[in-house]
From TrEMBL:
InterPro entries: UstE-like (IPR010721)
Transmembrane feature ranges: 12-34, 58-79, 91-109, 115-134, 180-200
Assigned GO CC terms: membrane
Presence of the UniProt keyword Transmembrane in the record: yes
Protein name: DUF1295 domain-containing protein
Cross-referenced Pfam families: DUF1295
Organism lineage: Bacteria, Bacillati, Bacillota, Bacilli, Bacillales
Keyword annotations of the record: Membrane, Transmembrane, Transmembrane helix
Annotated source species: Paenibacillus oceani
């Protein structure tokens, strides 16, 4: 059975499908945070939703928009492997948790912005940096002809094999914290478990097959996911 990391499929169609679906999800987030989304859902399902705090709504949407732009840059300019159709649909499904579920949970009551939110934004920026800058440095390294077919272990990847995934967990955690709803913390917890128990083992198997002894040596001296810890 082919895995996510060795499927051959068209380059553009899955990416354009993913872009379309995520754009729709982003629009739903805007509808919830700035228009009558909360009132409509309350009328239909009798959910206990408010209009939220306008400042918090804007902060959440700006952070979500930053995620959207970062991920589209990664998808269209940095991600060179083929994208299977299953990813074109599974990724938007996952991102609906970040773009829709977290904003919904933030609308369960009005919580004005406070000093803690600045700390949450710092976590968001740090996680985004770990994810996007790590990918950018790896992309730049792989553009050099002498590095073709070689395993990249520099930059942020010196600190963990999947430092980019750790960055993902951090920025999702920051979004959940900005929502100021304890239930929102289940979203980064789910993402951590997804990476730790599904995606990372699958990717490690692919890397071991592709890079052989180079990857085994790298794995022996480098943490898998969380720097200095795991």
């Amino acid at each position: 059975m082919k895995t996510l990391y060795n499927q051959n499929t068209g380059y553009w169609y899955p990416r354009l499908t993913l872009l379309t679906l995520e754009t729709i999800i982003l629009g739903v987030a805007g509808w919830l945070l700035f228009f009558d989304g909360a009132e409509v859902l309350h009328a239909l399902f009798h959910w206990n939703l408010s209009n939220g705090d306008s400042g918090r709504n804007w902060l959440l949407f700006i952070l979500i928009l930053i995620v959207f732009v970062r991920m589209k840059f990664t998808m269209f300019f940095l991600l060179r492997r083929p994208m299977p159709w299953q990813e074109a649909f599974s990724v938007p499904a996952a991102f609906s948790l970040y773009y829709i579920v977290i904003p919904l949970l933030s609308l369960t009551y009005n919580k004005p912005l406070n000093g803690w939110d600045l700390a949450f934004v710092v976590i968001f920026v740090f996680g985004s940096l770990l994810n996007s800058h790590a990918e950018w440095l790896r992309h730049q390294w792989k553009q050099l002809p002498e590095h073709k077919g070689k395993l990249y272990t520099g930059g942020y990847f010196r600190y963990s094999i999947h430092i980019n995934y750790f960055g993902d967990v951090l920025w999702v955690l920051a979004l959940a914290l900005v929502a100021w709803n304890a239930w929102a913390l289940l979203v980064p917890l789910w993402l951590f478990c997804f990476f730790a128990f599904y995606n990372i083992p699958m990717l490690d198997k692919h890397l071991a097959e592709k890079y052989g002894d180079d990857f085994e040596r790298y794995r022996k001296k480098t943490k898998t996911f969380i720097p200095y810890f795991y």
